[in-house]
Amino acid sequence: MRREIPLIITSFVGFLFVIRFFIPHEPFASMENTASSWIQVIKAFAIWLGILNLLKISGEKIYKKDKGWGFAAIVIASFLAISIAGFFFPFWETRTPGDSFIEHARKFQYPGTSFDWFYTYVYTPLSSTMFATLAFFIASAAFRAFRARSFQATLLLLAGFIVMLGSVPVGNALFSWLPQGWQVSDIADWIKNYPQVAGQRAIQIGIALGIISTSLRLILGVERSHLGGEG
Amino acid sequence: MSLPETPTPRTGQDFWERLAQLDRRIIFAFIFLALAIPLFFTIRQPIAVSPEGRAYFEAIENLPAGSKVLLSFDFDPPSSPELQPMAEATFKQLLTKNCKLVVIALWPQGPQQAEKALAVALRDPQFKDLKLEYGENYANLGFMAGDEVVIQKMNSDLPSTFPSDYKGNATLSLPIMQGVKNYKNFDFIINFSSGFPGTREWVQFCVDRSGSKMIAGNTAVQAPENYPYVRSGQLKGLLAGMKGAAEYETVVGKPGKGVSFMGAQSVSHLVVILFVILGNIAYFASRRKK
Amino acid sequence: MVSLTIAGFLTLGIMSFVYKDNPVYKLCESIFIGVSAGYYFVSIFYQSLLPQLTDKIGITGELSDSALAYYRETGSLASPQWFNLIAAVLGVMMLLRLVPKIGWIARWPLAFVIGSTAGLRLIGELQTNIMAQIQKSILPLWDPQYIDGSLNMAASVGHSLTNIVMVAGILTGVVYFFFSKEHKGVFGGTAKVGIWFLMVTFGAAFGLTVMSRMSLLIGRLDFLLRDWLHLLG
Questions:
Q1: Do residues A115 and A13 both lie within one domain?
Q2: Could you tell me if A54 and A154 lie in one domain?
Q3: Which of B96, B162, C146, C176 would suit a FRET pair with A92, their CA atoms being 20 to 30 Å apart?
C-alpha cells in the first residue's frame, strides 16, 4: 500500500489534468481547480521541507561538532534573525490605526520594515554577488577552454564572437565600413533569429519528446523511481 | 680547455606556454578593470534596436488607452541589473497609456522587485501629477507557490489562485479585479523572467491555452530558448538581457541604467574576445613548437 | 550609511572568493544560505499558505458575501469548506519526510505533484514545443517578395535563403538527435550538418551568456562605486 496508493494518485491526477484539457466542463473543471489548490499548498510545504532539512543538517553538524560546525551555526543564526524579523516584527513596528494584528503582520515586507532591511542590505547583495562572480569565471574558462581545434569549434567561436560584438554598440563602431543592413548587429540579430532558432527548435523537439514519454510512463505507472527505493 | 656551454635561450616557446597557463587572477583583474573603468565615463553610443525589441515596444504602444495588463515578475535580485531597467521602462510606457496594471509573481522576490520598479517609474517628472490609486489603477497580488500549476489555474479561476493581494486585502474586494475571472479579462500579458518558472511555462500554459497576447523580458542566458516562440508568433516581442533593456529605453526615449551600462558591457566583451583569441594563438603556437 | 556599509562588506566578502577560498567568504556564504532560507520561509507563509488556507476559510482574510458567491459560482471548492484543510494535511504529510521512520508518508503528496506535472507537461510540450514549432517550421523554400506589385528579386532571394536555412537547420538538427540509427553515409552526413547548426546555436548561447554574466557584475560594481562609495556621479 505504501507504493500502490501513491501510484494510483499519480495516475489519477495525471489523467485528470490531461482530460481537463479536452473536456473543460464539469466535473473536471472543479476537480482540476481543487487539485490545483491542493498542489499549490503542497508545493509551498515542499519548499518548507527543503528549508527544514537544511536546518536539520546544520543542527546535526553542530551537535556532532563536525568540521565546519561554526559555519552551520552561522546558517542557523542568520535564518533565525530574518525569520524573527519577518514573524515578530508586528510586536515592535507601529501598527496603522484600524489594522488588525494579521493585517499588520502581513505588511512584513513593506519598505522600512526590518524584513525589508534584510532583503535590501543582506539578501540582495549576497545573492547578486554570488552570481556576479560568474563573470570572472566565464572569462577565465573561455580563455582556457575555447580552442578552434576543429571546424565545428571554429563555427561555435565565430557565432559567439559575432553575437557578442553585435550585442554591444562597439561592434557596429568597429565595423562601421559594413553596408547598411549588414552591420554586425544585423548579422547577430539574423543569427539569433534564424540558425540559432533552427538549432533550438531541434533541441526543444527532442526534449519535448523525452518529456512526453516520461510523463506517459509516470501516468501509466511504468515509471516508479519517484517513489524511492524502500517501503 | 673548452668554454662552458651556454644554454640556448628558449624564450619564444616559454612565452607561449606561459601565456596559455596564465594565472586566472590576472584575467580576473582585467575583467574587473574592463568593467569598472568605463563606469566613470559617460559613453554615448548609438544603440541598434533588434526586430524583437522593437516589436516589444510596438506591442505596448498599440494597446488602447486604459487597457488592463497582467504583469508577472518572475525573477530575483541577481537578475535585476538586466530585468529591472526593462521593468521600469515598461511601467513608464504603460503609465503613459493609462493602463490598469495587475502584478503577480511566481518567484517570492517578484512582488518587491515590482514595487521597486514602480517606485522608480513614478519618480519620472512626467508622472508627478499622476494619481495611481492602489486597487483602482494598480494592484500587486503578491507571490504564489505552485509554478506551472498557478499559470494553468489562472486559465479558469484567477481570484481563487491569488485570493489575497500583497497587502492582505481580498482580491475580490479590489475594484480593478471586479469581473476578472481569467486571462481573457486582460488585454495583454507581460512576463519578466530569469529561470523556472518563466516565459517558457507562460507560453505553454497561458498563451497556447487561452490565446492571450504576451511579450517577455528575459535575461540574456534564458533568451535563446525563447527566440523560437518569437519566430512562431507565440510571443509578440522579446527583450534579451541588458542590451534588450538598453534597446527598449532607447525606443521609449527614456535612457536609464540599461543605456548607461552599455559602455562597460562593450569593453568587457572586447576583453573576453581578446582573451579567447590570445588563448588560441598561445595554444597553436605552443603546439607548433612541439 | 551603516546599512550600505554592511551590504558593501558582504559584497566584497563574496568577491574575495575570486582571489582564493577564505574564511570571510565562507562566513558570507553561510549568512547567505541562512538568510535565503529564512526569506523563503517567511514569504511562503504569508504569501502562499495564509491566502490558500486560512483566508479562504475566512479566518485571516476578509471574505465578503460576494467572494463566497463567486467561489460557489465558479465551482471553486476552495472556500469556505473543509476541503481546503485536506491541502494542509497533505502539506504536513510532506514535512514528515524529515522523520526517517514515517518518511514514506510524503509519497502521497509527492504523487499529487508528480501527477499534475506529468499531466500538464504531456499536453503542454506536445502543443507548444512540438505541434506549434513544427507548424511554424513548414516554410516556403521559394518566398517571393513583392513591392508595389512587382517582384523584388533581392528580397525574395534573401527571404528564401533564410527559409532554407531554417528548414535545413531544423531537419538536420532533429536527424542528429536520432541515435537509434548509426550516423553513417547520407544519414551521417545529414547529422554532421545538424551539428554545424547546433554549434551556431551554442555559440550564440555562449555570447549571450557572457553578456548576461558581465551585466550582473556591472550591477554589483555600480552598487559598490555609486551607491556605497559615491565615486560615480
A1: yes
A2: no
A3: B162
- Grid look-up 495588463 returns B69
Residue A21 falls inside a structural domain: yes
- Domain range spanning residue A188? 146-227
| ipTM score | 0.90
CA atoms within 13 A of residue A92's CA, in its CB half-sphere: 10
Which amino acid, C146? Y
A151-160 pLDDT, tens digit each = 999 999 999 9
Q: Looking at the predicted structure, is the pLDDT value of residue B224 above 90?
A: yes
| Statement to judge: residues A173 and A119 lie in one domain | no
A212 pLDDT more than 50? yes
C-alpha cell at C78: 476552495
Whether residues A125 and A43 share a domain: the answer is: yes
| CA–CA gap between residue B122 and residue B112 (Å, rounded) | 15
- Exposed (0-12), middle (13-18) or buried (19+): which is C81, by Cβ within 10 Å? middle
Backbone angles phi, psi at C83, to 5 degrees: -55, -35
- Give me the residues of A, 1-60, that contact C with CB < 8 A: 2-3, 5-7, 9-18, 21, 26, 29-30, 33-49, 51-56
Within a domain: A141? no
Give me the residues of chain C with pLDDT under 50, please. 77-80
C-facing residues of B in 175-234 (CB < 8 A) are 181, 203-205, 208-209, 219-221, 223-224, 228, 231-234
A190 and A119 in a single domain? The answer is: no
- The predicted-structure confidence for A158-206, as pLDDT tens digits, reads as follows 999 999 999 999 999 999 999 988 999 999 999 999 999 999 999 999 9
Q: Look at residue B171 in the predicted model and tell me its pLDDT.
A: 87
CB within 8 Å: B162 and C51: yes
Nearest CA-CA distance, residue A132 and chain B, Å: 8
Instruction: Indicate whether A112 and A158 sit together in one domain.
Output: no
Residue A140 lies in a domain: no
Interface of C with B in 27-86 (CB under 8 A): 39-40, 43-44, 47-48, 50-52, 55-56, 61-64, 66-67, 70-71, 74, 76, 78-79
**Do B276 and A143 lie within an 8 Å CB cutoff?**
yes
Nearest to A192 among B47, B160, B227 (CB): B227
Domain match, A152 and A101 both:
no
Alpha helix positions (H), chain B: 11-20, 24-39, 51-61, 80-96, 110-122, 148-153, 158-161, 199-202, 208-210, 227-231, 241-252, 257-260, 262-289
Over residues B146-168, the pLDDT tens digits come to: 999 999 999 988 988 998 888 88
Query: Is C129 an interface residue toward A (CB < 8 Å)?
Result: yes
Residues A111 and A159 in one domain: no
